[in-house]
Amino acid sequence: MTNLILVVDDDRLMQTQLRGLLAASGYRVAQASNAQEALTIYAQLQPDLVLLDALMPGMDGFACCQQLQSLPGGDRTPVLMMTALYDEASVERAFAAGATDFITKPIHWPILRQRVRRLLEVNQVMQTLRQQTEQAQMQEMQLRIALEAARMGTWKWDILANQVTFSENLKTLFGLKEDTTHKSYETFLSYVHPEDRDRVNNSLHEAIETRAECELEFRVVLPDNSICWLVNKGVVFRDTSGKAVQMLGVDMDITKRKQSEDNLQQSEERFQILARATNDVVWDWNLVTNQLWWNNNVHTLYGYLPEQVSSDPTWWYERIHPEDRARIIADIGNLINSGQHFWSNEYRFRRADGSYAYIFDRAYAVRDSMGKPVRMIGAMMDISDRKRAQQELERQNMRSRLFADVTLKIRQSLQIDEILQTSVTEVQKLLQADRVLIFKMLSDGSGTVVKEEVVPGFPVTLGQNIIDPCFSEGYIEKYRQGRVGTINNVEEDNIEPCYAEFLGKLAVKANLVVPILQHTKMWGLLIAHQCAHPRYWNESETELLLQLANQIGIALAQAKLLEQETRQRQELARSNDELQEFAFVASHDLQEPLRKIKTFSDRLKVIASDSLSAQALDYLERMQNATRRMQTLIEDLLTLSRVTTRAQPFVSVNLFQITQEVLSDLEVTIQQEQAKVEIGELPTLKADPLQMRQLLQNLIINALKFHSPEEPPIVKIYSQILLSPLDPIAISTEKCQIIVEDNGIGFDEKYLDRIFNVFQRLHGRSEYEGTGIGLAICRKIVERHQGTITAESIRGQGAKFIVTLPMNLSF
C-alpha cells in the first residue's frame, strides 16, 4: 500500500497544487485547512508523513506540531514544516516543536519530492530498528523470565584470567550479593559442597582436556548454610591454536527434584518393608513396561512356587474366577481411562491347588504430570473366612425369613385341618422333599397319616394306619425328649432291617423325622421323605424342620384352645339368651300380680285405714314400699333385657338434643335437689336413639342421686373428639368421649370393677334409693355400640363417668 501524506495549509490553492504533485508521484493524500482539523484527521487516519504550513490563522503550525507529538504514534511520524522564507529563529522553533525537517516557500517540486522520499525512507528504517529493538528486549525478558521460572542461571569462566562471571539469576541461586558478579575460579569452588568439590573440579578440568562437554550434578552451600542441588552444563571455547580460553554454561536448581527422588526412594524402601510385613499379597504393576511384581505372600497364602508366578499380568487375569474375570478387567480398565486413582473390588482368585479364595483387592494408580497412568500398586486381602461367615449369615437370614413365612402361614388359621394341610404343603416346598407327611400317633406308637404332600409317581400314604414293627415305647420317650431321626441313605446307613424293609415299601431313600409336641405330650411326627435318591440332611434343614414342628405344636394347641373357647362362648351365649328370655318373661309375668297387690293395698289403705291399728298401718306401709321397689326392679330388669332384645337400628343421633330432652323429663327432680346442670358441646353420631337417651338419663340420675347433703349437686355434661394415632385424617377412625361429671360423694376407685355389674351397690337402701342395675344398663348399651365406659373418682370429691363411642358406627 502507498504512503499516506497529510497536507495542512490554509491556502486552498496551495493545497490543490501539493495534492496534485504528490498524487502524481503515487502517494495518497489527505487535506486539512487548519491545525484543529489536521489533529482530528491525524487521529483518524494515522498518515505516514505530515506536510505542515508554519503560519496559519488561529493555531499555527508550530503549536499544531507540538500537539501532534502527544497523539498516539505522533512522535514517530515525520513532520515536514513549510515556512515562508528561511528564518533561523523559525527553523529552531520548528525543530523544537518536533518537526523532522523544513522547506521554504515558494516550494520547488523536485526538492519537495526528494525531501518527502528521504523522510519516508528514513522513517521506515527507524521503525524497523525500533521493532527489532523491542523484539530483542522482549526476547531478553522472556529468557530472563524463563530462567527465573526454571531456576536457571548462566555463567562464563575466563580460563586465562581465572575469572568466573555469574548472571543475575545465578547469583540469586548462589545467594550472592549484587556486587559479587565476578569471582575467581577458586572462589566458585568454595561454594561447592565439600563432598562434591573434588568431583566438580575434576569434571571441569577433564572437559578442558578432552574437549568434551561437561554435565554434572552437585551441591552448593548457600550463605544461610542450606543446601541447593544444581545440574551444570558447560561448553569449552578455544582459540585458533586449540588452547582453552573460556567456558560457558548454565546451572539449573534441581533441589526439589532431588528431594522428590529422596522421598521416592524412602517411599520405595517403606513399600518394600510393608510388602514384607503385611499378611496381604502385595503387587506392583508397571504400566509402562507391563511387568507385574508380587511379594512372597503369593507363595505363602496361595501355594504357588516362585517359578510358577509370572510377571505377565495375564498370569493374574487367568487365575481370576471365570465368572468374575470380565468384570474385574473392565473395572481396572475404567480406572485407567477415567483419570481416577483409587480402585477396589471383590473377586475369587484361584489357589495353586485349584480351590478359590475370596479376595478384597484394592489399588492406587500413579499418574505422571500429564495424568497418564504409569504404575498401579495394590494389595489382595484374603476374605474367605469373612465371606463364608457372611454367606452363612445370609443362609441363616434366608432360613429365618422362610421359617417366618411358613410359620405365618401355619399360624394364620386356627382350624386344625387347615393347619396340618398348610404345614405339609409349605414344608414340602421349602425342603424340596419328595414327600412330607404328618403322622398322628397313638400311645402304642401306631397311628394314622392325617396329612400328606407327595410328588406324583411315589406311593400315597394319606389315611393309612401305620404300625412300625421296629417302633417301641422307648422311641416314643426319646421323641418326647426332642429326638430327631435322620437317615441319609436307607441302603448304606446302619439301620435295623425291619425298619429298612418298612421304609422300602414306601419307596423311601432318605428321611428326616421330628416330633410334634404339645407341652411335653407327644402328639405326632413331622416326616420328610426323599424317594428319588439318597439325601444328606444338613444341620440347618434339621433345625428348621424341628422349629417348624414346634410351631405346628403351638398352632395345634391354640386351635384346640380356640375350639374349647368357642364351645364355651357358644354355651355362654346360649345360657345368656336363656337367662335374658327368662328375665323378660319372669319380669313380665310378675308385673300383673304385683300390680294387683299394689292396687288392693292402696284400696285397703283408703277403706280401712281408720279401723286398722298403728301396727297394721305400719305393715301396710311396708308392703306398699316393697311393692314399689319390686316394680322398679322389674322395670330395670326389663330395660336391661331390652338392650339386646328390642334394639333399634343405628341412625344419626344429636346427643345435645337428647340431653336437653332428658333434662326436661328430670326437671322436677332437678328443682327439688336445687341442682345446676351445665351442657357443653355434644356431637352427632350413629347410634340407637332410645338407648342413647337411656344411657344419658341413667348417668344424669346417678349424678343427681349421689350428692352431698351439704351442697347442691353440680352436673357437667360435655364431650371431646378422639382421632386415631395411626390415621388422624380418616373420619372412620374418629371416636368421641361423652363425660358426665359431678361434685357428689364420689367412691373409692378400688370398687370400679363392681359398680357396672348387676345388683352392685356401694351404699345401703336407707341412704340412697336404687336397684343397682342402672350402671349395668349403661355398660350393656355402650358395649352394644362397641364402646367402653369407665369412671374416675376420689371419695368425697365427686365422680367423672367417661363413655367412649365410635362416631360412624353402622349396625
Can you walk me through this structure?
The protein contains 22 helices and 29 strands. It has 811 residues and is α+β, with helices and mostly antiparallel strands. The strands form 6 sheets. It has a 6-stranded antiparallel beta sheet with strand order 8-7-6-11-10-9, sandwiched between helices. A 6-stranded antiparallel beta sheet has the order 19-18-17-22-21-20. Strands 2-1-3-4-5 form a 5-stranded parallel beta sheet, with helices on both faces. The chain is elongated and about 180 Å long.
- Sheet/helix structural class: alpha+beta
Given as residue ranges, the uncertain stretches (5+ residues, pLDDT < 50) are 727-731
At CATH's second level, what is the architecture of the largest domain? 2-Layer Sandwich
Number of strands: 29
Mean pLDDT over the residues: 81
Helix tally equals 22
Family: In the N-terminal section; belongs to the phytochrome family.
Modified residues (4-aspartylphosphate): 53
Domain Histidine kinase: 585-809
Enzyme class: transferase
Write the layout of secondary structure elements.
Elements: E1 4-8, H1 12-24, E2 28-32, H2 35-45, E3 49-53, H3 61-68, E4 79-83, H4 88-97, E5 101-104, H5 109-149, E6 152-158, E7 163-166, H6 168-174, E8 182-184, H7 185-191, H8 194-210, E9 214-221, E10 227-238, E11 244-253, H9 255-277, E12 281-286, E13 291-294, H10 297-300, H11 313-318, H12 322-338, E14 342-350, E15 356-367, E16 373-382, H13 384-411, H14 416-431, E17 435-441, E18 447-454, E19 465-466, H15 473-480, E20 485-487, H16 497-505, E21 510-518, E22 521-530, H17 539-608, H18 614-645, E23 651-654, H19 655-665, H20 667-672, E24 676-679, E25 684-687, H21 689-705, E26 714-722, E27 735-742, H22 774-784, E28 788-793, E29 799-806
